[in-house]
Fold this protein.
Amino acid sequence: MSNLNGWGLTARLISKHFGALGDRVSEAIANFDPETATEADRDRLADSLRQTAQKLAAARSSFQKEADDVVKLRQLIATDEQAAGTLGDRLAAGKISEATITLFCDELEANKARMPQELQEEADARQYMDELQTIVDALSKQLADFDSAAKKAMQALASARAQQDLQNLRAERQAQLAGLSGMRGNSSALNALTRRAQAISNEAAGLKIVTDIGQRPYEQAAELEAIRKSVSQPAIGNESALARLQRLSGQQPAQLAAPAETATLALGKA
């Protein structure tokens, strides 16, 4: 049987050690900086959890062995105590020697004397196992808290960076608008070009006034000529057939009247 004396002290030392580790982990979580944090803290925590879990598995095996030893010892003592009631009759009948009875009694007394130690070893093994279980549970929670804190911190960092990018973009756009506004209001080249266009427009308007004045006599003379022509030339729509014929032939009206008159006289004589 394993001697488990001192396991309670060992468990308390381990608990103290991992308790200090837990404090450091808690401090690391409180001061977690996703800009500079690495996987090292989490790896150390996870490694401690693995080591403690392995110790817990061994402690469970040891406790089970100690518990089984206690059960076996109790069964052995109970069996020997039952057998002790029949050994006296067998000794009186000469079926068993005193030396054998003495050996039997020695073993029964030794087993009974060992029982408190076995019970203590079982209790120590249970305490060690229970404390390791507590440490494993604490480390598991710390690891989960660390992951949760890291996730929240990374989300907060991502949100802050998004806000920073948005504000930078807004500032850049405002700067561009300010620059364009300044160009529109304060550009000397643009102002000069505007003034030049206005001057040219004014010159063109002045030339139009001058040319309009110079064109006026010609327009008036053309109007007078049109008036004269309208008076001297009758409207074609009111022209008689005879006058039209005279105009088209280029002959005088009298020249065309003679043949007509001759024809009239000839008809009279006949």
